[in-house]
């Protein structure tokens, strides 16, 4: 399967490196006007383009993988879909529900698949939590809390993350990961709300608290770009009827009365260096391998996770509309 990647920044580099580990996949072309693109493919038979339209016109591609900054996703995904290629898009698909809906409609008109890279779905810790919610091994989920906290991302090139129209700020940068997992487990929330805070004079809020209700189940979450050099934090705690299960960022442990703590196996069998501010991981390999499998098999032509992704964008957009 021949892949063309648009974007040679952090995520483009991660995807490029992971495709090398997927049998039957070949990155045939890379589109990015920066010197990073030439550096990435040095010594390889991979053609580099500065313009996505030229790459799409010149190359015989099965899949286009969009890894550009968020505000370019709509344009690049639409270009690739219009050319009749299957598309993988790094999160988020779009910053507006109407745009996301339009892209799915275009994919269906062209008879191709549109897959969105919500990589947390492929984390071993996420799979443990999803299995426990599904099987009710410890009873019904009563409440859950998710934390995703970061230092202010000063490292972002040109500071585009701080422009709401380009990034969607914290809801689309950080909370999107946890909310996607929440929706995939519990469906559409009956209630969704958030509060935010930050220093005066900034174009963005620095800290958000989110709350959701799914019937009798409550979920809360926090996400932040703190004005402090804190370690990145991504944890969760899930309270079931008969146990509390905690992910501390590394381990997943279940606690009960009258039973010793249970440690779940969340060790990744394969770890590939990311080259970005994430340690080596197998999540991206799992994700991209699954996407390639779905595209190859495509048993029914249905868009994978379409309604969940649309609901995700709809809720996140509601948080940024009046920010």
UniProtKB/TrEMBL annotation:
One of its GO terms (molecular function) is nucleotide binding. Residues 1-117 form the Gfo/Idh/MocA-like oxidoreductase N-terminal domain. Pfam families: GFO_IDH_MocA, GFO_IDH_MocA_C3. Residues 128-225 form the GFO/IDH/MocA-like oxidoreductase domain. InterPro entries: Gfo/Idh/MocA-like_OxRdtase_N, Gfo/Idh/MocA_Oxidoreductases, GFO_IDH_MocA-like_dom, NAD(P)-bd_dom_sf. It comes from the Bacteria. This is Gfo/Idh/MocA family oxidoreductase. It comes from Anaerotruncus colihominis.
């Amino acid at each position: 399967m021949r892949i063309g990647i648009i974007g040679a920044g952090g995520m483009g580099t991660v995807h490029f490196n992971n495709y090398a580990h997927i049998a039957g996949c070949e990155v045939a072309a890379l589109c990015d006007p920066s010197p990073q693109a030439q550096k990435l493919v040095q010594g390889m038979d991979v053609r580099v383009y500065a313009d996505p339209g030229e790459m799409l016109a010149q190359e015989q591609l099965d899949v286009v993988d969009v890894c550009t900054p968020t505000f370019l996703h709509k344009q690049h995904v639409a270009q690739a879909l219009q050319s009749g290629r299957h598309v993988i898009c790094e999160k988020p698909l779009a910053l507006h529900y109407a745009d996301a809906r339009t892209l799915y409609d275009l994919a269906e008109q062209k008879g191709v698949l549109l897959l969105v890279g919500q990589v947390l779905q492929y984390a071993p810790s996420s799979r443990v939590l999803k299995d426990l919610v599904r099987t009710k091994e410890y009873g019904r989920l009563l409440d859950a809390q998710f934390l995703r906290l970061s230092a202010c991302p000063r490292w972002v090139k040109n500071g585009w993350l701080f422009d709401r129209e380009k990034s969607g700020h914290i809801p689309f940068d950080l909370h999107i990961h946890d909310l996607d997992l929440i929706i995939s487990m519990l469906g559409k929330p009956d209630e969704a709300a958030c509060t935010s805070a930050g220093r005066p004079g900034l174009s963005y809020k620095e800290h958000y608290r989110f709350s959701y209700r799914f019937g009798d189940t409550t979920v809360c979450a926090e996400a932040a770009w703190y004005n402090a050099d804190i370690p990145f934090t991504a944890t969760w705690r899930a309270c079931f009827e008969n146990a509390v299960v905690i992910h501390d960022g590394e381990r997943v442990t279940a606690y009960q009365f009258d039973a010793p703590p249970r440690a779940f196996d969340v060790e990744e069998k394969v770890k590939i260096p990311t080259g970005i501010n994430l340690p080596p991981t197998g999540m991206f390999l799992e994700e991209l391998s699954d996407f390639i499998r779905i595209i190859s098999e495509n048993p029914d032509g249905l868009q994978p996770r379409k309604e969940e992704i649309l609901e995700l964008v709809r809720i996140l957009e509601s948080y940024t509309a009046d920010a």
